[in-house]
Structure prediction request, 392 residues.
Amino acid sequence: MQMFIKTLSLLAVLVLLPDIYIYLVHIVKLTDRKLLRMLWFLPMIALIIYMMTVRMDKAAAPDHQHAVGVFMIIFMLICVPKALFFIIDAVGHVFPWSAVRKTFTTAGILAALAAIFILLAGYFKGRNHFVVKEQTMEFDDLPDSFDGYRVAFFSDMHIGTFRKGNEKDVADIVNLVNKSKPDVILFGGDLVNYTKEEIDGFESQLNSLKAKDGVYAIMGNHDYSIYKRYDNERQHLEDIKKLETAEKDLGWKLLLNENDIIRRNGDSIVIAGSENDGKPPFPSLGNLKKTLNGINNNAFCILLTHDPTHWRRKVIPETNVQLTLSGHTHAGQFIIFGWSPTKYVYDEWYGLYEEGKQKLFVSAGIGTVMFPFRFGAWPELNIFTLKKAKQH
Prediction:
């Protein structure tokens, strides 16, 4: 019920208020014919009907991901420019001077056009504008044999959204990873949107990810099939198990509150993977004690945990883990001038954070979810070169 109320509130802000305002202030001045005037509301009515239909038919969502994505783009293309124009133009109408009002109206039109440009650019170019970001990280306690060790990290693939004409993107992502020649590949969760079937047909590409020390992966909130309607819990659990099996069949080492040790020349580092540990409504299945079982407190550890809120809630107070890698936020799939609305939802939402000797890196992810769009928060592959900090 709470989510339904939020949906209606969003509709009111993005659709109803701007449409009514623009109709009363501008449309009525353009024509005296009532039928033509009423045509202004047709897109609004169609969007509301379609949105409510999709919401009520949640069980069908896995089979219509592409259609839902296209709808979301159309929805935003219609609603966001009108909402921006409404806000700016309404502010202008506070002033009694016609010249000031016209200036605000012009500014509103320009803002609307800019929004249309950003949305189209994000849809047609941004979502597959894959970038490789290289970064060096220094640690006092990195074992000598791992000085210069290269880690490829990517997260939030949401592979179901690469269907319907975007299948080549999966091969492009795999090629980017392999070309970086990493020592190890780490995946931060959310391989799918709904169920295991989304990876069908992509097995050969995903299986071709190669690194000296293999591919490690964890589960994200989407991988627990929480966005599909089931007749019973048994079906739900079976779908989760299918995805776990499928990832292992790819040759990936799936870590479910587990760890593995990589050894070189008598030195070692730990790769640990927590199950998703988030705040409601996301699954909270992480168990750090189990995840780090058998690991010496002084061992150098890289922890994969999908939700970055896990770091401040539990990782910092309960462990000495030096490097935590997360995803989940997508950096809002939108950053402009360094700003994203995601910063109001997550304290750690993108990039590198440090607390004492512990580091967290939050990836913007490499796929999209529901809304096939990225602008500024380009889909990324992160390459970390681990370095032994010089002693002073």
Notes: The first helix runs from residue 2 to 30. The chain has a mean pLDDT of 92. Residues 308 and 328 are 7 Å apart (CA to CA). Residues 2-124 form one domain.
